[in-house]
Design brief:
By secondary structure, the chain is α+β, with helices and mostly antiparallel strands. Mean pLDDT is 92; it is low at 381-385. Among the domains are: 59-199, L,D-transpeptidase catalytic domain-like (Beta Barrel), CATH 2.40.440.10; 305-374, 2-Layer Sandwich (Alpha-Beta Plaits), CATH 3.30.70.1070. The N and C termini lie far apart (47 Å). The protein is built from 9 helices and 18 strands. An 8-stranded mixed beta barrel has the order 3-4-5-10-8-7-6-11. Strands 16-17-15-18 form a 4-stranded antiparallel beta sheet. A 3-stranded antiparallel beta sheet has the order 12-13-14. The radius of gyration is 23 Å and the shape is globular.
Length: 385
């Protein structure tokens, strides 16, 4: 087991995705560990859990080990570099485009990769009314980001992304996405030929300081039947461990952890600290003031091109929509403004009519809002907040 668990007090304007990225967690990591906390508009002062403790998958500890169940990549550098393990949150393939398990190797490293979408993806985007070019050069619109590692199965890559807030989710066409800063770190360390083992282990157990911990995750979409088999193997292994170490397992705790499936390792021996006690004693980290990569829209003036996205009676809903837009990839700068009667979500500033119309169409397609472009000098934001 590596890492630890910590807590953080949120401030006004924080979002869980910003917290997750800052601390190397994925979207599902932070959301599952904090049930009841609004993802996009959490209450200021809320105490949240940072689930930064992870059980290493049961696999050979060399090169890269990716566990699909918890969407986490572990890198074991050569022994000559010291007894380290680096771990990164990742995004993986969604249902119908699953990332395959198996043993592969790094075949090629590429800086500023060009993306050539396969015919299947071109067809999918065409059917969605979002046609893709046949060749996507390096740049902000390239979904591979700035670095790519091609596997020995050439259909799959480990790469960066221009949509960092999809890390920690099942959203790709099978490739493995890392935060831009994480792929940069990994790219500089890994070499061609390194082994890549992709496993699917929803239930993980480990000993640490005399305590036996259990970590449970929901199975990937469409693999619920496989999860039942994994659970049976888990229970058999725990019974063997208990006998070998002459300890007594609290099976009610095991059932609770498997039911909760929040990815937080918790002790399962009789008389071990309970989950609430463990969380209650977790050390607090100081708020960084601003999270790494946190989007901050530029000021919007009346002489800027902008988009009137939608209007809401409740400020919270307007703030939520603005936060979601700010965390798109590429981001759509947005903020809620009040005209004294309703709360509007205004996106911008944009450079020209061409950009504003392209973004407005994107908002209509992806979010089904009216998204009306606002020309310079026709919008007055000076009295709004």
């Amino acid at each position: 087991m590596v890492g630890g668990i910590y807590t953080l007090r949120l401030r006004e304007g924080d979002t869980l995705p910003d917290v997750a990225r800052h601390y190397g967690l994925g979207h599902e990591d932070i959301v599952r560990a904090n049930p009841g906390i609004d993802t996009w508009v959490p209450l200021a002062g809320s105490r949240i859990l940072l689930p930064m403790r992870h059980v290493v998958p049961d696999a050979s500890r060399e090169g890269l080990v990716l566990n699909l169940a918890n969407m986490r990549l572990f890198y074991f550098p050569p022994a000559s570099h010291g007894p380290f393990v680096y771990t990164f949150s990742v995004g993986i393939g969604r249902e119908g485009w699953e990332t395959p398990t198996g043993v592969y190797s790094i075949a090629e490293k590429k800086v500023n990769p060009t993306w050539i979408p396969p015919a299947s993806i071109l067809k999918e985007h065409e059917e969605q009314g979002d046609p893709l070019p046949r060749v996507v050069p390096p740049g902000p619109d390239n979904p591979l980001g700035d670095y790519a590692l091609r596997l020995s199965n050439p259909s799959y890559l480990i790469h960066g992304t221009n949509k960092p807030y999809g890390v920690g989710m099942q959203v790709s066409h099978g490739c493995v996405r890392l935060y831009p800063e994480d792929i940069h770190s990994l790219f500089s360390r890994i070499e061609p030929g390194a082994k890549v083992r992709i496993v699917d282990q929803a239930y993980l157990a480990a000993w640490d300081s005399g305590e036996l911990y259990l970590e449970a995750h929901p199975p990937p979409e469409g693999q619920e039947a496989h999860a039942a088999q994994m659970k049976e193997r888990l229970l058999a292994r725990l019974r063997e461990d208990a006998k070998q170490h002459d300890v007594t397992i609290d099976w009610a705790r095991v059932d609770e952890i498997v039911r909760r499936q929040d990815g937080v390792p918790a002790p399962i021996l009789v008389n071990s600290p309970g989950f609430e006690a463990m969380v209650g004693s977790a050390p607090a980290v100081a708020h960084p003031g601003r999270f790494y990569g946190q989007p901050v829209p530029r000021p919007l003036n009346a002489d800027d091109w902008s988009i009137a996205v939608a209007s809401f009676d409740e400020e919270t809903e307007a703030r939520r929509v603005a936060a979601v837009l700010n965390h798109q990839g590429p981001p759509i700068p947005a903020r809620p403004v009040s005209n004294g009667e309703v709360y509007e979500v205004i996106a911008g500033p944009f450079e020209d009519r061409q950009e504003v119309e392209a973004v407005a169409e994107r908002i209509r397609r992806d979010f089904e809002f009216d998204a009306e472009p606002v020309a310079p000098e026709t919008g007055d934001f000076s009295t709004r907040r």
